[in-house]
Amino acid sequence: MAKNGKLSDADLTPIFNGAGPRVQLSNSAAAAWNSLALHKDTVMRVKGKVSAYRTFESQQHFWNLYQAGKGNLAARPGTSNHGLGNAADVPPETEASIKRFGNKCNWDKIEAPGERWHFNYVGGFKRPNPGADPGNPVLRHGSGGFGQDHFVTKDS
Hints:
Elements: E1 12-15, E2 23-26, H1 27-38, H2 56-67, E3 87-89, H3 92-101, E4 107-108, E5 118-121
Antiparallel strand pairs: 1-2, 3-5, 4-5
């Protein structure tokens, strides 16, 4: 397994991030996130920025800010769920959707109780990744279920 904050491109997949920059999560976390973004009742299509996978160096930056009293809570580099590609910090407009629907795609609030914007992928999502563009989902064998079902029709 790759080291925390040192994941390879093969370990990471782009996620939907509204108008924000390209960000990535671990492959299974990204499949779950992108499925959640497809659901018609979620508010994932926002202008705010999502922070997801962090390199070791990026986590070191946030850790240094935290230690200096100039930043939010941050995990020590090498121990962060961001460094495993299994955590996302979201803009305020997105929080309610993840709280309401996240459990259907294995996203939950399991750490950092003082950070309402921080959510974790808790594993076990088995659907294929529909891609990072909710307007053009990629349907594959096994597609459907939460977030994808209204894009899939069954053969009769």
